[in-house]
Amino acid sequence: MEHLDHAALLALFDRDLRAGARPDGPGARVERTGDVVRQVATGQGWNGVVWSDLDEAGAEAAIAEQIRHYTGLGLAFEWKLYGHDRPADLGRRLRAAGFTPGPQETLMIGEAGGQILDAEPPEGVRVVPVTDAPGVDLVTDVHEKAFGEDSSWLRDQLLARLAADPDTVVAVVAMAGDEPVSAARMELVPGTRFAGLWGGGTVEAWRGRGIYRALVAHRARAAAARGFRYLQVDASGQSRPILERLGFLPLTTTTPYVYTP
Question: What are phi and psi of 8, to 5 degrees?
Answer without folding.
Answer: -65, -40
